[in-house]
Design goal:
Helices cover about 5% and strands about 45% of the residues. It is mainly beta.
Length: about 375
């Protein structure tokens, strides 16, 4: 089953000859996903979005004053949250209620404390605040890329641990022919950095900065909120759709759920002229998802030498394949004894990874970047 997203950047008022180094063509995607992922996708496509400050107004999230209190509900799903590069913030919320139905108990009021259990750097931002129906964390910044283990403790009633996978910062200055300057930016400037082709429901990485429309130089003094807004399209753009930070921001969790053409506006909270992106999403005709598949976790990503690859559900990887950007199988491993894989011999670029567990569970195709 082949799925791909063909993205065409339409930049207004300026004709920048951006040279994308890591262009690639999407290859095979695992034909279907597990039933659990199908269930999550039913809800996740809007519950990931960070535009609304009220989770109760988001499709797939429910609120009432009689919800069972059995755990912590997050704006993101799963135990791994893909977070942007150090120094940038990606707002999220937490609440207490019935986790399986994502129903928030609107009567719940309690303090929540955060502890960093492990990680390559430190967390800057509030580590304690109150839940009153829900609580927003809108100013978290990490000091180094990598995986952080974070514990949320709510009034001694609930303790939950999640992992924040903080991405490497993109060197956007080197990708813009005119380079960087301090000030003068007036036009939103997006780049996918991947040639504009990704699998359906896969992470669509996009870096956004602002340039001066006359000189084409990237404004390295930019600091603001950046928003992604779906203007049209047959399905939903889902993921984290708002970020805050400086110089430029890389969205690490944006996806599309149905085939067709989407028009996406990229804007800032300042007076910069917005830009639009047209996304053509192509999927197979059957649209059936595999009940025998699971999600892969890859970190660090991008990587230099070794990369850790494992199933989110903890199952052992039995077979693993690595494809290049043209869809050619270049690496194949079996009977893997360690989750850490040395791929230092691979040239810089974008790759695709799929895996099968010892029980025959197949992982969804994941993007891996060698820097």
């Amino acid at each position: 089953m082949f799925c791909c997203i063909i993205l065409r950047l339409r930049t207004h008022y300026i004709n920048l000859d951006l040279q994308v180094q890591d262009q690639f063509i999407m290859v095979k995607k695992i034909s279907r996903l597990i039933l659990l992922v199908a269930f999550l996708i039913l809800f996740v496509h809007t519950s990931f979005g960070q535009f609304s400050t009220n989770p109760c107004s988001i499709d797939g999230v429910y609120c009432n004053d009689t919800a069972e209190r059995n755990g912590v509900i997050y704006s993101f799903h799963g135990e791994i949250f893909k977070y942007p590069a150090p120094g940038t913030s990606m707002p999220f919320w937490i609440a207490v209620g019935d986790v399986s139905s994502r129903t928030i108990d609107t009567t719940f009021v309690s303090p929540v404390a955060v502890t960093v259990l492990s990680g390559p750097g430190s967390l800057q931002g509030p580590l304690a605040q109150n839940i009153s129906k829900y609580s927003h964390f809108d100013d978290w910044k990490f000091t180094a890329s990598g995986v952080y283990e974070i514990e949320f403790s709510i009034a001694g009633l609930f303790k939950d641990t999640v992992f924040f996978e903080v991405a490497e910062e993109v060197d956007f200055c080197s990708q813009v022919p005119a380079g960087c300057t301090d000030g003068g930016g007036d036009l939103v400037y997006p780049s996918t950095g991947n040639g504009g082709i990704i699998p359906v429901d896969a992470i669509f990485p996009i870096t956004v900065g602002v340039v001066n429309r006359l000189t084409g130089q990237l404004d390295s003094s930019f600091h603001s909120y950046v928003y992604l807004t779906q203007l049209s399209g047959p399905g939903d753009m889902y993921g984290t759709l708002m970020m805050y930070g400086g110089r430029w921001l890389t969205f690490t969790d944006v996806r599309f759920d149905e085939e067709g053409t989407y028009l996406i506006e990229i804007s800032t909270a300042a007076s910069h002229t917005p830009d639009t992106i047209t996304v053509d999403v192509v999927s197979s005709s059957n649209g059936v998802r595999d009940i025998n598949s699971s999600s892969l976790t890859l970190f660090p990503n991008p990587f230099n030498d070794a990369v850790t690859i494992k199933f989110e559900n903890g199952e052992t990887i039995e077979k693993l394949r690595v494809f290049n950007s043209q869809g050619k199988l270049i690496e194949q491993y079996s009977s893997i004894t360690s989750s850490s894989l040395n791929l230092s011999h691979l040239p810089k670029g974008v790759y695709f990874v799929d895996a099968v567990s010892m029980y025959g569970i197949r992982g969804e195709v994941s993007i891996l970047v060698k820097k």
